[in-house]
Amino acid sequence: PRGAVQKPYWPEPSLRRAVTGSKAPTRDYFHPVSFGKVTVGEWMLLDTIVRPSDDSWEVRIANAMLHDFVDVSSSEKEFFKVWNGFIRSQNFISVKDYPSKCKEFIKQHAKRMSGFEEHWITHLTTLWEEHQISRDDIQAIMKFYSETIKAL
Which of 13-27, 50-64, 115-129, 134-148 has the least mean pLDDT? Predict the structure, then answer.
């Protein structure tokens, strides 16, 4: 409105005292669904939800969902936990990098791969069916796999 004087906005004093020296906000925030004001205690609880420091929650959920499959053996589930953990650690993977990432996976997890041969071949076949790797890539990866396992 015309002639209205706006005074500077300051959050509640209790919020300012609570967040001094922390990463919490210095202004008021509201819940995205309920639109209620986020209190000091809620902010401290929501801090890791709003800005997660890692993706461990995503890993836990993915592993729990993996256990829901009844048509997948326990060793295959274990293989995919290892594979998914490896893939999540990569920032960005282009299609052309898949063969080298598969070899890198073999290098890092060669000792754990001894019981996963069938699952590894099935996984490579799936990558081939999805046009992520070529038939030649599968041959090169499996040759690398067998050489790495023999060297152990």
Answer: 13-27
Q: What is the C-alpha to C-alpha distance for residues 76 and 66, in angstroms, rounded to an integer?
A: 10
Where does residue 71 rank: exposed (0-12), middle (13-18), buried (19+ CB within 10 A)?
A: exposed
Q: How far is CA 107 from CA 7, 84, 112, 113, 139, in A?
A: 63, 16, 10, 10, 16
Q: Helix (H, G, I), strand (E, B), or coil: what is residue 68?
A: coil
- Contact in structure between 107 and 80 (CB atoms under 8 Å): no
pTM of the model: 0.61
> How far is it, in rounded angstroms, from Cα 94 to Cα 48?
30
> How far apart (Å, rounded) are the C-alpha atoms in residues 144 and 32?
50
pLDDT in tens, 28-38: 777 767 777 77
Is-contact 113 120, C-beta < 8 A?
yes
pLDDT band, residue 140 (cuts 50/70/90): very high
Say how far residue 110 (Cα) sits from the centre of its chain: 22
Listed residue (128, 130, 131, 114) closest to 145, CA to CA = 114
